[in-house]
Each structure stands twice: as C-alpha cells, then as structure tokens.
Design brief:
With 296 residues, this protein is of the alpha/beta class. The protein has helices at residues 15-27, 36-42, 74-84, 110-118, 193-196, 279-286, and strands spanning 2-7, 31-35, 53-55, 67-72, 91-95, 105-106, 122-135, 146-148, 151-156, 163-169, 172-179, 181-185, 208-214, 224-227, 232-237, 242-247, 250-255, 259-274.
Length: 296
C-alpha cells in the first residue's frame, strides 16, 4: 500500500507520536510519500526506518495512492485538502491540535486507527466545497479560482470602521451587512468560524450554505441558511482601500470595489471516517454536549 503524509511544523512534544506512526508504517511495509516541506521539518527529529519518497503537489503522487494522512489540527487538515484539490484522494487526519472536528483521530490511538485504515475498514464521506472567483472594478475576472472546504470570509483589514457587505443570492439583494465582515460556510465549516459568530450547526450532506455576519451593527441581523445551488455575489464598501479575503487556510488582500462570486465547487472532498465515528458523536464529544459541571 502507498500513502501520502502531510504536515506542518509543530511542537516537539508530539514528535513521539510521529515517530510511532512512522515505525508502525515501516513494520507494515507501507510505501510512504511525505510532503517536501514537512520532510524538511522532520529531518533530524525522527528516525525513518525505510526509504521515503516526496511530493509537493498531488500530481507528484502515484495514481494508486490509497489516502493522505494529515498530521496536525484542523488547520493542517484544511491545508492538506488544498494540496489534494480535485484529485479525489481520500484524506483523514491525526489530531495534534485542540478541538479536531476534521482531524478526528486521537494521537493516543494511532495504532488502532492505522490498523483500520490499512485494512480499508472505513467509510468515505463526500464533502461539498465552496468555489469562488472575483472581478475587479472594470469587470475583469481573476483567472485564479479558489476553493474552500470550511468557509470563505471577507473581513475588514485593520481596526478602522466596519465595512458594508452587499450580498446577493441568485441576483436578488439579501442584505447590506454593516459589520466587521461576512462568512459563507459549508456544512463542514458550520462548526468553525461561523459557529463562533453565532451560526447554526448544519449536518454535512444537507445541501446548504450558511451566511453569517461578523459582529453586525444591526442586532436584528442573524445568520441565514441558503441552498447550496445558490449563486452568491458580494460587493464590499469601505473607507479603507482594501479588505481581507480568506478561503480556509489562505488569506489575501483584495481591493475595495472587487466583486466576489461564490458557488458550489464542481468536485467534492473524500473525507475518511472510521467506523466508530459519526457527525453526531463528534459534536457530542468535541462540544461537550450532555456534560454538566454540576455532576463533578
């Protein structure tokens, strides 16, 4: 079997778990492909008992790669998804971070989880992504099409006054949000930034997107759920000449006056879920549902 491993820099306290993983893979004679940047970080930190190969993009990987394993938190998992793009390579993650909605494998259960992965004892969940492109003030389309598994966010660039986010759904004005910004999230991203801003939790596969304002000036403005077939157009007004535009783990500066178009991507991400995992069990565990501190 061939697998790809993606990761970023992390604290030395978790090196022991990375060493455990590589030892187990060597014992099972798994062919390992390590992300080039991650390999540079691991040099002199772990002992690899077998030859490894390296990749920078998914086109470097062999066609019969079984899956990609992300080592880190949810942010690392999102970065791994950006590497996979539309290749269809299944992905899962070992959580070295804190909450871990996406990177759901506990670092203390690497051996058990790896056994299931190598035996293909898991399910594949097809998760919807957002696709976006932007036009400048003259209507010229930016050829770079971005995509996001969690969310696309527009937010004011500095500590200046709030921005006005004019939002249209299928050509009809939804609202002119006076706020610090706006989040458009998938059901996968409903438990991320959108949730922190008061958005609802939406079950994956529901066929929806969530539009959530960030610190709106009008207190009666609330998040709204729209169908994922919607065409969303956003125009920003601001005293500043630019604002921040982010898609998952990437952020860039965009000039005020640009028009942002958001819609469902034409491909999905294949997310691996082990047999004992489910969406409901994950949110119960991660959000501590059903626990009452009065009982302790």
């Amino acid at each position: 079997m061939k697998i790809a491993i993606y990761g970023r820099e992390f604290q030395d306290s978790v090196i022991q778990y990375v060493q455990e993983l590589f030892d187990l893979l060597a014992r099972e004679h798994v062919e390992i492909w390590v992300y080039q940047g991650f390999n540079e970080f691991l040099v002199n930190k772990i002992e690899c008992k077998q030859a490894t190969r390296f990749f920078s993009t998914y086109v470097d990987l062999p066609k019969d790669i079984a899956f990609m394993l992300s080592l880190g938190g949810d942010g690392t998992m999102l970065a791994a998804v950006s590497i996979i793009a539309d290749s269809g390579i299944p992905v899962t993650g070992i959580n070295f971070g804190r909450l871990g909605f996406l990177a759901s494998i506990n670092k203390d259960k690497i051996k058990e989880a790896l056994g299931q992965l190598l035996n293909r004892n898991y399910d594949i969940e097809k998760r919807v992504l957002l696709a976006t492109y932007k036009k400048d003030e003259k209507g010229k389309v930016d050829e770079h099409l971005s995509f996001a598994l969690n969310d696309i966010t527009l937010i004011k660039k500095d500590s200046s006054a709030m921005i006005t986010v004019n939002t249209y759904v299928n050509g009809e004005l939804l609202n002119a949000y006076w706020a610090d910004g706006l989040i458009v999230a998938t059901p996968t991203g409903s438990t991320a930034y959108s949730l922190s801003c008061g958005g609802p939790i939406v079950m994956p596969g529901s066929g929806n997107f969530i539009i959530t304002p960030i610190s709106p000036h009008n207190l009666n403005v609330r998040p709204i759920v729209v169908t994922d077939s919607s065409q969303i157009r956003i125009e920003v007004e601001s005293r500043s000449d630019s604002f921040l535009f982010s898609y998952d783990s990437h952020t860039q500066t965009v000039q005020t006056g640009a028009v942002i178009h958001i819609q469902k991507a034409d491909f999905n991400v294949n997310l691996i879920r082990l047999k004992e995992e489910s969406f409901f069990s994950t949110i119960r565990h991660k959000l501590l549902w059903g626990l009452d501190t009065r009982n302790y």
